[in-house]
Amino acid sequence: MSVETGTGFDVRLEHVSKRYRSVLALDDLSLEVRRGEFLCLLGPSGGGKTTVLRLVAGLAEPTSGALYIRGRDVTAVPIHRRDVAMVFQNYALFPHMTVYQNVAFGLEMRGLDGPRVRARVEAALELIRLTGLERRFPHQLSGGQQQRVALARCLVVEPAVLLLDEPLGALDRQLRESMQVELKLLQRRLGVTTILVTHDQEEALAMADRIAVINHGRLEQIASPREIYERPRTRFVATFIGVTNVLEGKVGEVGAAEVVVLASGGVTVSAATDRRWSVGDPVVLSLRPDRIRIARCSAPAGVNSLSGRVRNIAYLGDRIRYYVEVDASGTPIIVHAPATQADGPGGVVGVNERVHLSWDPGAVLLLEDSSSEEQRAARDGGTAWNSDSRDGRS
Fold it and tell me: DSSP 3-state assignment of 274?
């Protein structure tokens, strides 16, 4: 079983908008999915990611804009003529059919003869390691096995694009993580262009070649997992992916490769940047907890340096999370330190102890501030978030 790979784009959305009555589900969204790529659509519930998947599948039509699959305009083409296959969150297996019959169904609908159907079904079941379970019914399978059957039913028809609507959501954590690895290895082996919808950040980071973060029907950013995490473009992306500290302020000084920001609460921050800024420009700063150093001390505060008091501590296995209240302003700062640090000379910093925080200019990110929901609602003339109803899924 093989799927064509190479260069170019298998899926392209051009200025696509989708309205469900007064609800604007997608707002002028443009997106390209490379051939053979594993793309994750990530975002909050109601953000618009499932709407994108439904449009690509042909389960809905855009209100405006165009959609292409392998260069062909499929904006108004029905689902059975799109060369796509979709795995749903609940797998949607036929309960009265055996494993073999479920996997063979799509081939039989396409008119393939018996020997060809049998050969391709056997190959698909071997690929997903379900050989020997052909005569079982869905209720006789575990959740992981049902997921594999749903996947085999899609792969056996050799689609140009594989669509996955949170297919691992019903699995327990350990099985879910195991299936993430299996699914990614299978996708890489076949080279099939795959679009996965998820709201699980770790799942997207672990599986995707690129992540498209969608919020309020708009594309916030599309990039590799590492770039999404380390170089988020907007405030929303920075706060949605992982944990970060956000400060607002204004540019106080501009240097050749750094700016000094006077942040809220009297905090002075030096940040490395390659963008041109002017004194007085409003900025939003993001500082990841793992980029901050913490130590017992009474060191004076200064640029990229704060003093405060630990208000709470959380043990997270591989790391310790400190909640620090900054002196005077009371600004809360989250700090992550390796759990092994507790065994070092300084020992464990305790609750209510005074600490000193510091970080390098390169650890600070200067972000774009996304529009608020209220602003977008006013602009769109209606509700800016998506309904979770049948007619307005996210």
Answer: coil
Residue 197, φ and ψ in degrees, nearest 5: -95, 130
Res 388 pLDDT > 90: no
Q: Pick the closest to residue 364 from 276, 303, 278, 310 (CA basis).
A: 303
Identify the DSSP state of 48: S
Using one digit for the tens of pLDDT, what is the confidence trace for 166-194? 888 767 788 788 888 888 988 998 899 99
The CATH-assigned architecture of domain 237-367 is Beta Barrel (2.40)
Reported as a pLDDT band with limits 50, 70 and 90, residue 387 is: very low
Q: Residues of CATH 3.40.50.300 domain(s) within the chain? A: 9-232
Query: C-alpha distances in angstroms, 128 versus 94, 103, 125, 153, 179?
Result: 19, 12, 5, 11, 11
**End-to-end CA, the chain:** 33
Cα separations in angstroms, 109 against 57, 101, 138, 156, 353? 18, 12, 20, 12, 69
348, burial (CB in 10 Å: exposed 0-12, middle 13-18, buried 19+): middle
3-state DSSP call for residue 202?
helix
Phi, psi of 116 (to 5 degrees): -70, -40
pTM, two decimal places: 0.83
The answer to whether 370 and 384 have CB atoms below 8 angstroms apart is no
Neighbours of 384 (CB within 10 A): 23
Multiple choice CATH, 9-232, 3.10.150.10, 3.40.50.880, 3.40.50.10540, 3.40.50.300: 3.40.50.300
Distance CA 338, CA 319 (A): 4
Domain with CATH 2.40.50.140 in the chain: 237-367
- Burial label for 274, CB within 10 Å (0-12, 13-18, 19+), is exposed
Check residue 94 and report its DSSP letter: -
Q: In 304-346, which residue ranges form alpha helices assigned H by DSSP?
A: none
The rounded distance, in Å, linking the Cα atoms of 291 and 307 is: 16
Q: Is the pLDDT confidence value at 300 over 80?
A: no
